[in-house]
Amino acid sequence: MKDTLNVLLSKLRMKQLQLLIALDDQKSLHKAAGTMSMTQSAASKALQELEAMLEAPLFERSKSGMIPNPLGHCVIRYARLMATDLTALCQDVAEIRSGRGGRLAVGAIMGAIPACVVPALNQLHAGQPGLSIEVVEDTSARMLQQLDDGRLDLVIGRAAVAGDPSKYHYRPLGDEPLSVVVGHGHPPLPRKEVTLHDLAGHRWVTYPSHMPLHALLEREMDLAGIEMPDNPISTASTFVTVALLHSSAELVSLLPTAIAELFVARKMLRVVPVKLKSPSQTFGIVTRKGGVLSPPAERFIELVQAQTTEQALREEQPERPARARRRRDAAQKQKTA
C-alpha cells in the first residue's frame, strides 16, 4: 500500500484522472481523447501508465464500449471527488481574491465570545455572506497550538500562557471579569455581600484541572481558608454548567461575567455577590509573527477592535455627565471665589 501511495504521489497527473472521468462518460477511448483534446494514442498511453501505477486494469472492452471494472469504478469515484475538490478550491481562490468568500477559523476564550466575537462575526457575515467561518472555544494554551499548526487564523485569548510569547503578535482588548453564579431558582441570599464561606453547603461545578479557571478557583478557596471540594462536578462545557445550575439550587459555579450576564438576562442564572480577590485576567488578539493574514481575518480584527472601542465608550457614557457637573461646579466656585 505504501509503495503504491508513493508511486501515485510522485507520478499521478490530473490529466490522467480527467481521462478516466471522460472514459466513464463517453465509453470510448476515441471520444474521450477528443473531449480532452488529445490524440487517441496519447490517451491510450496515459491510461496504460495509470494502470501500471495501480498494477491492474481499470476497464473491460465490450460491444457497448469501455466499461470500468470494480477497481475502475473505485478509481473513477475518487477522480470525481478530487475534481470536485479542485473546482471548489478554484472557486474559493477566486472568491478570496475578490474579497467575497474564503474561510476564517477563529479561536476564542469563553469570556470573549458574547461581547467581542459574536458581534464582529455577525458584521463580518453580513458583509461577506459567502465566507465560511469556524469558531473554536478552548483554553488559550490549546488554541495557540492550533494557531501554530495553521488550523486557526487567529486567537482571541492570552499569549502569555505560551512557552515563548514573543513569537506572537498580541493586541490587548480588555479584561475577563468572573462571577460566582447559582441557578435562577436558588433561594434569595441573606446579605448583599456573600463570602465563599457562606456557600459551604453548596456543591461546586468546577472546571477540569488543566483549565485556568480551575487554578483561579483553587486560589480563591485558598485565600478564603477553604479547601477545594472533594466531590465537585467537573466539566469544561458552559452548556452543561448552566444546565446543572438551572436544575438544582444546591449547585454553585464560576463563570466569566459576560457569559453569566447572558444567562441572567434569560432568567436561568443569578449572580452571587462574592467579591473575588484575584485580579481579572486580560485577553487580546493573538496572531503568528511572520504569518500573512487573509483579508477576512484582517477584517475580523478590525471589527473586533472597533467593537471593543465602542463598548468601552458605552461603559464610560454614564460617567461623563458626572464629570461635566464636577467641572461646572469647579468653574462656579472659581467665579465666586
Automatic annotation (TrEMBL):
Family annotation (InterPro entries): HTH-type_LysR_regulators (IPR050950), LysR_HTH_N (IPR000847), LysR_subst-bd (IPR005119), WH-like_DNA-bd_sf (IPR036388), WH_DNA-bd_sf (IPR036390)
PROSITE patterns: HTH_LYSR
Biased composition (Basic and acidic residues): 312-322
Gene3D superfamilies linked: 3.40.190.290, Winged helix-like DNA-binding domain superfamily/Winged helix DNA-binding domain (1.10.10.10)
Record-linked Pfam families: HTH_1, LysR_substrate
Domain HTH lysR-type positions: 12-69
Any one GO molecular function term: DNA-binding transcription factor activity
The protein's name in its UniProt record: DNA-binding transcriptional LysR family regulator
Alphabetized UniProt keyword annotations: DNA-binding, Transcription, Transcription regulation
Family, similarity comment: Belongs to the LysR transcriptional regulatory family.
Any one GO cellular component localisation term in the record: cytosol
